[in-house]
Amino acid sequence: MTAPTPQRVAQLMQAEQARFERTHARSGELFQQGKQHWLYGAPSHWMRRWMGGWPLTIADRPHDYGIRLADVDGNELVDFCLGDSGGLCGHGHPAIVQAMAHQAGIGTSLMLPGGDAAWVGAELQRRFGLSYWNLTTSASDANRACIRLARMITERPRVLVFSGAYHGSVEEAHVELAPDGSVRLRNGIHPNAFPHDRLSRVVEFNDTAALEQALRAGDVACVLAEPAMTNYGMVEPQPGFHDALRRLTRETGTVLVIDETHTISSGPGGYTRAHGLQPDMFVLGKAIAGGIPAAVFGLSQAMAERVWQALPPLPPTARQSAHAGFGGTLAGNALTVAVMRAVLSQVLTEPAFARMLELAARMQRGVDDTIAHHRLPWRTLRIGARMETLFAPEAPRNAADVRRTRDHALEALLHLYLLNRGVLITPFHNMTLCCPGTTAADVDCHVAAFAEFAAQVSA
Ligand SMILES: Cc1ncc(COP(=O)(O)O)c(C=O)c1O
């Protein structure tokens, strides 16, 4: 098994860059215009993460439900990025379109519950198993709310995260372990005057001994964790790790917050239900309202009771309680809740997940066959509908393994190569998502483009 040479990768990259510039010129012009008024040339800095030098501008053109889009240069696109999960419902699902239009005609943001609130609350409880729920406008917000509640009820300062984790704009989580084991800020992020040394703690994923040592100090309010890591590279929990995490958090009185914003790809009840986890708090964002900015967090019965002790609900005649310290006034608005109902009842359903998982397995088989055919030292990993292609033969156990084996030049080439063939994958590491609107023909487009890429780099 031999990896592609750096010379071959550089040669192909040059050709792909030229092709990108030729075939995405109009998007390039619009990006130049965008640079006059957007801080990073487009409405969000995330849109700058794509290879090529500028983001594609999506054409203002109606299309059927699914994952096929077109850009302003007339390129046809098959979308496996799906907004890095926010588009997990697919683009233009009729039930979502209808729910949006219907609620928009009634009122979008009322600071009062709409007619769908009771149904959605009951469904969240049924689906994910936690007793009490609250909405926020983003998963970052939901994580911050859980951290705040955990600090309130434990009266402890620190938040423990796993190295390589990403939980949105959560200051406490911007830390990682450097190769020498010291703690540093991830991705060269600005410290923002935040006292990470006093309020954060970080250990490697799957390292039970380090976790135990970190929790026994008794100053950690909560562990904030993805059940399987998806943001640095995909890292699966090793057998017994979740049992140890649950046992150690219970023994040390630490709140366990499971962030399922990406691992909802596991199935209709997320990784938590698929693997029988028992979080104290549970976070789910992005896809839950069909891509409208929204997230939910859930609390177990025991956690809710502790929260109510610290912050009692209002008595019937009072109008002002202590502010919970989280959540904007847009959170839980009627539009969001109406769309959540459509998503939970008609889009991200049990049968839809069964199809999504089947299609992701089809993609994995296709990519695995290509890897075997060219005898490349690569492999795939999959968490339900989410698949990752690794340019390494072994599954990583933690962020240090990912860092050691990552090939940034090859990764960049794969992204640009697929983009030039109209196949969109998440612009960070090599992740794809299947949604209820994905078809076998869509998956085969990815498999064919990947096969072409593998043949080119192996030549
Ligand atoms: C696991 C996880 N949590 C939280 C977030 C942040 O989500 P949002 O952008 O909605 O704040 C992300 C975003 O990628 C994520 O992957």
Describe this entry's structure for a reader.
The chain is built from 15 helices and 15 strands. The protein is α/β, with parallel strands linked by helices and 459 residues long. It has two domains: 6-80 and 350-458, Aspartate Aminotransferase, domain 1, CATH 3.90.1150.10; 94-347, 3-Layer(aba) Sandwich (Aspartate Aminotransferase, domain 2). The strands form four sheets. Strands 3-11-10-9-8-4-7 form a seven-stranded mixed sheet, sandwiched between helices. The protein has a three-stranded mixed sheet with strand order 1-2-14. Helix 3 packs antiparallel against helix 11 (334-347), helix 4 (117-128) crosses helix 11 (334-347) and helix 7 packs parallel to helix 8. The model has no long low-confidence stretch (mean pLDDT 96). Pyridoxal-5'-phosphate is lined by residues 84, 138-140, 143, 166-168, 226, 231, 259, 261-262, 285-286, 295.
